[in-house]
Design brief:
globular, five-stranded antiparallel beta sheet, four-stranded antiparallel beta sheet
Length: 296
């Protein structure tokens, strides 16, 4: 599978389009196109996520952490956590699995299991991104279970759905034990800044095709331009304009691959003022021209 453009809900969370209500557990097997450093831009989704790297190195970034995941390692990313993915070596092949599930798959809402184990883990502000490595016995066991889940899902042997749910429960208990100190520690939640940032990201994702300014982006969250810049720099370590251009390029990649629109038409559709400026920004992000990207 290639990731070119995330499918968003009306609130600009990622919609996990493969997720089925009757079996809310999805495994994506990802092989990104060569030459791209940014694999997935800033986004979030309600589903918790595990990633295991099969080949290459993946750089995973949240608002408070940045980790490099190598072959045989993985990460857990909690529900509704803003994150993005890079590859530090764009020309080196990379292959990774993404496991996502709805909370109700592990236990019904407000059940004893949910309130005693799932809610404390999945709502813990201190557990945003967990780097899983083979040196820790608990984490190595989690990685082994993720491998078994991927194998069962691929083979689709009789009963794999029940076996998978049971194994996921064991895996989540091990994750709870691994993060028990953070879960039980009282944290001062910081919802306000992230809420404002999400509002501004939603505005950009809804208006990227327009000639929007820093003032427009800041106004979406009812803050000043200076506070907007501070918020982006503090939490994403980039400027609002840099994020806007990055998102536009992400959309343009999908249009180049899946439509017959001319490069100038795509430039206009994604909010660039001219084809030449589009080409300049595209090359800066993708290390190739739009024409080369479409051809390859």
């Amino acid at each position: 599978m290639f990731l070119e453009e995330l499918k968003m809900t009306s609130h600009k969370e990622e919609e996990i389009f493969e997720m089925k209500q009757e079996y809310p557990y999805v495994i994506r097997r990802i092989t990104p196109l060569a030459g791209r450093s940014l694999l997935v831009p800033w986004h979030w989704h309600q589903e918790p996520e595990f990633i295991t790297v099969k080949e290459g190195v993946l750089e995973y970034v949240t608002l408070d952490k940045r980790v490099f995941i190598r072959q045989g390692e993985g990460v857990f990313v909690n529900a509704n956590v803003l994150h993005q993915l890079f590859t530090p070596s764009p020309d080196v092949p990379i292959y990774y699995d993404v496991h996502m599930f709805q909370r109700e798959f592990a236990a019904p809402a407000k059940s004893l299991i949910d309130t005693k184990y799932l809610a404390p883990l999945l709502q813990c502000e201190a557990v945003t991104l967990v780097h899983l490595g083979p040196d820790s016995p608990l984490q190595n066991s989690i990685l082994d279970k993720l491998e078994r889940l991927a194998r069962w899902e691929k083979e689709e042997a009789f009963g794999y759905e029940l076996k998978s749910r049971n194994l996921l429960s064991e895996l989540l208990l091990e994750l709870f034990e691994d993060q028990k100190e953070n879960i039980l520690k009282e944290q001062e939640p910081c919802f306000y800044s992230e809420s404002r940032l999400k509002t501004m990201l939603i505005y950009i994702q809804e208006h990227y095709m327009e000639n929007i300014s820093l003032e427009d982006i800041a106004g979406a969250a009812h803050i000043g331009e200076r506070e907007c810049l501070r918020c982006f720099q503090k939490m994403l370590h980039i400027t609002p304009v840099a994020y806007l251009n990055s998102y536009r390029i992400q959309v343009a990649c999908g249009l180049l691959r899946f439509t017959g629109d001319s490069i100038v038409e795509i430039a206009m559709k994604t909010g660039f003022s001219s084809g030449s400026y589009f080409g300049k920004i595209f090359r800066r992000h993708m290390n190739c021209t739009p024409k080369e990207y479409r051809k390859n």
